[in-house]
Amino acid sequence: DAKTTQPNSMESNEEEPVHLPCNHSTISGTDYIHWYRQLPSQGPEYVIHGLTSNVNNRMASLAIAEDRKSSTLILHRATLRDAAVYYCILRDLPSNTGNQFYFGTGTSLTVIP
Amino acid sequence: GAVVSQHPSWVICKSGTSVKIECRSLDFQATTMFWYRQFPKQSLMLMATSNEGSKATYEQGVEKDKFLINHASLTLSTLTVTSAHPEDSSFYICSARWPGANVLTFGAGSRLTVL
Fold first, then answer.
1. How many whole angstroms from its chain centre is CA A57?
2. Which residue on chain A is closest to B4 by alpha carbon?
3. Set of chain B residues whose Cβ sits within 8 Å of the Cβ of A46
4. Alpha-carbon gap, residue B26 to A39, rounded angstroms
5. Which residues of A touch B95 (CB under 8 A)?
6. Which of A10, A18, A89, B12 would bridge with A75, disulfide CB 3.0–4.6 Å?
């Protein structure tokens, strides 16, 4: 599986934008870039995913580099509820079975009031 | 939509006993579910892939006789930790793929403490 590299931790002030980077230099042409986050003592939750183009949803934006070797998750206005561990995961095309998600170490985001 | 429910959310048991954790897809059918475990301050580790109507596929290093997985229906997968020991104490999380999407939805997790 192609690996991802993320900073162990980041801090952000409340109500300011946050840019969470992810490097994936060995990404393959069919790997989708997924972001999940895990709040303390909870299961992970889906944030966003994309293949080549930048993506926006109600939670965040995903900016994908032109060469696809890196991506950035953007939280436009961080709130205290955004404090979580953010995981960047590469996943190949879907199938009925398999295509497991393997989690890396993620980035622990601290939001400062 | 696409909600996964886990039960129990926490359980305490004595060493040597077996514990069953249930994972249900509430509003969709899941032919495949995934089981993870997570130790404090660590990332999620995939344990096994649960396939409806067939045997589970275990990741390397995970004892299949220790962690029994049954996926008897399209909405229920169970993980049984057999002869639990204190080192099995962990946070167990299940997940399933959204129907028609390349995205996973996760349960809230089950915290197991073995005394």
1. 13
2. A43
3. 103-105
4. 22
5. 43-44, 101
6. A18
Q: Do B51 and A97 touch (CB under 8 A)?
A: yes
Distance from CA of B93 to the nearest CA of A (A): 6
| Tens place of pLDDT per residue across chain A (113 aa) | 568 999 999 999 999 999 999 999 999 888 899 999 999 999 999 999 999 999 999 999 999 999 999 999 999 999 999 999 999 999 887 654 456 888 999 999 999 99
Instruction: Write down the residue that tokens 């390397």 correspond to.
Output: B60
Q: Please enumerate in sequence order all residues whose Cβ is within 8 A of that of B108, keeping only pairs 6 or more positions apart, or say none.
A: A42, A43, B5, B6, B9
Residue whose pair of structure tokens reads 């939001």 in the numeric block: A111
Cβ atoms of residues A5 and A107 within 8 Å: no
Rounded Cα–Cα distance for residues B8 and B110 (Å):
6
Residue with token string 């344990």? B47
Length, in residues, of chain B: 115
Q: In B65-103, where do the E strands start and end? A: 67-73, 76-81, 90-97
CB contact under 8 A, A43 and B108: yes
- Cβ density class B48-61: b for 16+ within 10 Å, e for less: bbbbbeeebbbeee
CA atoms of B3 and A112, how far apart (whole Å):
31
Across the interface, of A45, A94, A103, the residue whose CB is closest to B43 is A103
